[in-house]
């Protein structure tokens, strides 16, 4: 009777031990040093920030609502390497991802490289390069990117986005009108009849196709280098991430996942040297 009563507890403990050993063996099989696992998954799971505000990089599965796209697949692949489960931390804007880093809300994130963000985040080299473009009213007198930086021109942007940070530094005369997210910036652009809307090329091109009263301006105002990042102070983890991203690019993983998520027109970033 005593053995029978203790059996369930023993079985549960054995199952937990097997579970842990399977993770350890997986990590060992990929030769991931223990300090890398500790850096990138200090809680025993990889908390990956996913920005659904950028549909080039992240989408929700229409049936299951699970994250999909290149960022979700990179997070899953990294978690498998580390031998830990992945936990997705969802956001609707890149600026919110960055702010959440200060609260320790995630272990890895997928953000555009920017000097402001680099003060708190260690970035890899880019894995994807996308374009920042303008949309303007169809009858606008603005025709070239250079035309936007004029007195009286108001530009809608998603607050804290890579293009908000860039335009804050580069525009001298035009005024930025910040919205909580990229989608909200479209709403403000239309509602307040602003002179321009800045954002990522693919979603803005899709938006312009739905509204005959707007047009996409030729050219780009910036190249947006999307990278992986981890909070400062995780040196071993940051070094491993840099190598991981280069492998994912060279193996074709990034290109294949972009194509599988319907984003084949996004450019895979060129190779970069690592330590």
Q: What this model shows, in words?
A:
- With 275 residues, the protein is an alpha/beta fold.
- It folds into two domains: 2-128 and 226-268, 3-Layer(aba) Sandwich (D-Maltodextrin-Binding Protein, domain 2); 130-223, Periplasmic binding protein-like II (D-Maltodextrin-Binding Protein, domain 2, 3-Layer(aba) Sandwich), CATH 3.40.190.10.
- 41% of the residues lie in helices and 23% in strands.
- The protein has ten helices and 13 strands.
- The chain has helices at 2-29, 34-40, 70-82, 94-101, 115-118, 162-170, 182-191, 201-209, 235-250, 253-260; strands spanning 46-51, 59-60, 67-68, 86-91, 108-112, 121-123, 128-137, 154-158, 175-179, 196-200, 214-216, 222-231, 267-268.
- The strands form two sheets. Strands 1, 4, 5, 6, 7, 8, 9, 10, 11, 12 and 13 form an eleven-stranded mixed sheet that branches.
- Strand 8 (154-158), helix 6 and strand 9 (175-179) form a beta-alpha-beta unit.
- Helix 2 (34-40) crosses helix 9.
The number of distinct helices, counting runs of at least 4 residues, comes to: 10
Main pleated sheet: 11 strands, mixed
The CATH architecture designation of the largest domain is 3-Layer(aba) Sandwich
Give me the Rg, rounded. 22 Å
Core attributes:
alpha/beta; D-Maltodextrin-Binding Protein, domain 2; 41% helix; eleven-stranded mixed beta sheet; 275 residues; 10 helices; two-stranded antiparallel sheet
Would you summarize the structure shown here?
Helix content is about 40%, strand content about 25%. By secondary structure, the protein is an alpha/beta fold. A hairpin with a 6-residue loop joins strand 2 (about 60) and strand 3.
